[in-house]
Amino acid sequence: MAAAPTGATQQFVPVKEIRNGIVVLKDGGYRGILICSSINFGLKSADEQHAIILGFQNFLNTLDFSIQIVVNSRRMDLRPYLALLAEKMPGQKTELMRIQLREYIQFVSSFADQKNIMTKSFYVVVPYAPRVSAASAVSFLHHNSTAKADATASSFEEDSAQLEQRLVLVASGLASTGVRAAPLGTEEVIELLYRSFNPGELENPIRLDNE
């Protein structure tokens, strides 16, 4: 079987680059990603549940742009944790503590073999599409290369500021429901995207393309 041409896979990835924690798409759009805390809704009282639902409804009504809510479920690998416990076993002060630790390791190992222990992460993807007027596009085409580079840098700063305003709006809206949200940095976005485009490691990949 002939090897795939270099870059054959990359052409299907809509990401152009990541700058200052912002995903820049090939079509000129931007994406900011917030990681969010969770709420144990089932343990809340009826009044608290109603308040959360009402707050989330009000939050959605304040938005004049679309967002994507992503739940990332991954199987938790407990082997490093069990190995760490096994290393600590000889250092226990009494035989009883060693026996209890050994039985605990066996219990967790057996439970993990029988059940899929999952860890969940919650994200909100916030989009921004810069608007380019016809006049500015024509002016841009007539600039020299240095002017184009300066204009591109200036445009990114302006567009990223607009996206950051949206991120702040979404984070404050989620805070009213009891959910804490914080933007991902560049390294965190790179790691998340790497896992998103490797289906073997992530069952629910984030979609960054326009729907």
Q: In words, what does this structure look like?
A:
The chain has helices at residues 46-62, 79-88, 95-114, 134-141, 145-175, 186-196, and strands at residues 15-19, 22-25, 30-36, 68-75, 118-128, 181-183. Strands 1, 2, 3, 4, 5 and 6 form a six-stranded antiparallel sheet that branches. It is an alpha+beta fold and 211 residues long. 46% of the residues lie in helices and 18% in strands. It starts with 14 loop residues before the first strand and ends in a 15-residue tail after the last helix. The chain folds into two domains: 18-75 and 120-211, no CATH class; 77-116. The longest helix has 31 residues, at 145-175. Strand 2 (22-25) and strand 3 (30-36) form a beta hairpin. The chain contains six helices and six strands.
Number of domains: 2
- What is the helix/strand order? EEEHEHHEHHEH
Find the structural class using helix and strand composition: alpha+beta
Q: Quote the beta fraction.
A: 15-25%
Q: Poorly predicted ranges (pLDDT <50, ≥5 residues)?
A: 133-140, 145-151
Radius of gyration from the alpha-carbon trace, in angstroms:
24 Å
Q: So what's the overall shape? A: extended
Count of extended strands:
6
